[in-house]
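Deviations from the work plan: none for this task. Representative record:
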Amino acid sequence: MIEKDVVIVGAGPAGLAAGIEASKAGANVLIIDLNIKPGGQLFKQIHKFFGSSAHRSGTRGMDIGMLLLREAEENGVEIWLKSTVIGLFPGNKVAVEKGLENEAKEVVTILAKKIIVATGASENVVRFKGWTKPGVMGAGAAQTMINVNHVKPGEKVVMLGSGNVGLIVSYQLMQAGCDVVALVEAAPKIGGYAVHAAKIRRAGVPIYMKHTIIEAIGDETDCVKEVVIAEVDDKFQPISGTEKVIEADCVAIAAGLKPTVELTRLLNCEFTFNGVFGGFIPLHNKNMETSVEGVYVAGDATGVEEANTALEEGRIAGIAAAQSLSLIADKEAEEKKDAIWKRLEMLRLGPFGERRLSAKEVVLAEYLNKVGMPQAEIKLKG
Amino acid sequence: MQTKNKGADTMCLRVENHVILEVDNNVPLVQITVDGKMIAAKEGEPILAALLANGIKINRYTLKKQEPRGLFCGIGQCTDCAMVVDGKPNVRTCITPVRDGMVVETQNGLHKEVERK
Amino acid sequence: MALENTGYLEYEELVQIQTIPDEERFKKGAVAVIECVQQIPCNPCEAACSRKAIIIGNPITNLPIVNGDECTGCGICVSKCPGMAIFIVNKVHSETKATVAFPYEYFPIPTEGEEVKAVNRKGEVVCDGKVIKVMNPKAFDHTPVITIEIPKEYVDQVRSIQRRRAE
């Protein structure tokens, strides 16, 4: 059986950052990812990131991705691509369907001293008549097509949802040469940053507030050709007589994300429900360790936030895993983690961030309550 | 413009110019066969991207209701884009790169071999 | 805030929320106008200005304030703002014309001398304009900054140009 100090699931910002930190401390690290390329969703983030200078703000997500990949390589982090973790078993065994040349697959079991689950999140769906028709897709899927694969998912797009994903992807669809013929939002208020909304308004995108999609109508092959929208009442029910038909060959759904938690579920980690973070998440402590000793989590898989918070949480998990392997001195590790928690606090400020700041505190408190003191702290006090 | 189902290669949905992205329009092309028809694909791109660029939006039909499915998550999570690739069913085309000479077929239900069992 | 319901700000609203240069400063020439009205943890504009004319300070969620005495209207901050919320306004460009500079990341990028349709914050065409400057150096990282000349009376409204299509 292959043995590794740290096995990380997912090569997105959280997984890469965790791998870099653990590797820097001297751990033998393997990251496993099912995609063709590493970087998770960073390479489709072609916009300049918000944040502080400490977080390379003003740099495009894809460029941060390149920097991370280079850092991972320099630090000798091993990455298996086209490989899917199909099971985690007691005793820290990781079952992997490893991608080989010529699309062949081979099942491999790895014995990991520490496991970091950084599996990210998946898009939520809004169901309306015709939502399964070709042409209806997640906003993230549309974003992947234009920014990573350089292919348009359609010419005329109706965007559903005014959170930052809906606003940013609308903008990027226009950058790729598509038209965004409507942005539809059921709530009375725009969910994302006003500056993102402002830039698509300037580009002439009609924003339909208190509206929803009633139906996607297909052509003779059943691919989307028209979208019916309608105004909704205070209970989000469509108001009869307000229907409007819009010609479009693509519907992009930006209705939020939910953490991808199958693997932490398999291990019977303690869970909690947290609406702010997008649903059920594994409880974790300030080391990002779950209720199962030696199993850590980071990034959207611990609650949906953004790339910068994922990066920072990944760093914490990587440092904590190395610390528990005695690869890094406790004092040094604690100082590093403290500094990162302070930076995380800064990222969770303001009217948009403070909900996440307090939600994180609730999760950490619940961990202490249900699971107890983090291992590292016990060791320090002992 | 009406979007045609299969092999409507008259329509080009490729992003050719972009202010931010460096779009390489000189990537070597490979040929793949889709339901018996040859199409050009950019070397290394996912099968799904090559199909979309050629105006093909349907990847499979469902088992019970024979409804079409196409790109939905784009990152290998949902399986809506599964097709039969080189005779093998349930291949997620959004995360599987093209290879010269690859034979891709629209998947009906669970694909015939599986259904027979 | 109408902004949250519509996605754009009325100029009057902007003036109430954000500190923008006063008319005395506008009389002296080009200056940065920052239309950033929510407390987002973000500060690259502050670091972008070598003259330290943009101040955010602590906490990072403070709205940026432009020091009109230091700002020369150079436009570097325009390309750095991830929210594309900074504009350079010159109300005294000539007797009858004003200029507005804004970030523009759509293909094709307009060229100097080109006649364009100037749009307001809602994307409505309000007047004709002429591109007088296109800045797109490497340091701007693919965020071109376009300066257009427009009739003076539209200067508080115009914030971009109508998006054009590839031929």
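The two ends of chain C are 39 Å apart (CA to CA).
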